[in-house]
Amino acid sequence: MEIINANTAFLSNFEVMQILQQLKDNTQKKHKREASLATVTYETVRYLQDTECQHQSSEKIKNFLESIKSFKLTKLEKLMMINTPPRTELEIQLIVQESEERLSENDVKQIIVAANENFPQAS
């Protein structure tokens, strides 16, 4: 059972990384008493920089969301696809609930193409 607060906003890893980088820059200029916050911010940004979001941009995310708009995916499914772009049919099955009933084989291929075009794999 999912319990979701209607006032809750979902952030992608890219958005979290941007916010924390700004916070990190502001924290370094302030008092030393915020050292624990600075540590958490640093460690989180360091982790996120090793994920897919390092190569993402707001424009790429918007283009991806536009290209998958017709598939009637939930907000959480879209968020998971942004954070971990699906590269295989299996990954889509793991992300999309009841994907066999909701998506055709062609839909799955189009989602994979959209993910690869907007979020190319880092080499």
Describe the structure.
The protein has 123 residues and is mostly helical. Helices cover 61% and strands 0% of the residues. It is elongated. The mean pLDDT is 83.
Give a quick summary of the entry:
By secondary structure, the protein is mainly alpha-helical. It has helices at 13-29, 35-48, 58-67, 75-83, 89-95, 99-102, 105-118.
> Helices and strands: which structural class?
mainly alpha
C-alpha termini separation: 39 Å
Q: What's the oligomerization state?
A: single chain
What is the approximate shape?
elongated
Number of helices: 7
Mean pLDDT: 83
**Could you give a short account of the major beta sheet?**
none
Radius of gyration: 17 Å
Low-confidence stretches: none
Task: Tally the beta strands.
Answer: 0
The helix/strand series, from N terminus to C terminus, equals: HHHHHHH
What percent of residues adopt helix (DSSP H or I)?
A: 55-70%
Strand content: under 5%
Question: Could you name the key traits of this structure?
Answer:
elongated; mainly alpha; 123 residues
Topology overview:
Blueprint: H1 13-29, H2 35-48, H3 58-67, H4 75-83, H5 89-95, H6 99-102, H7 105-118
Helix pairs in contact: 1-2, 3-7
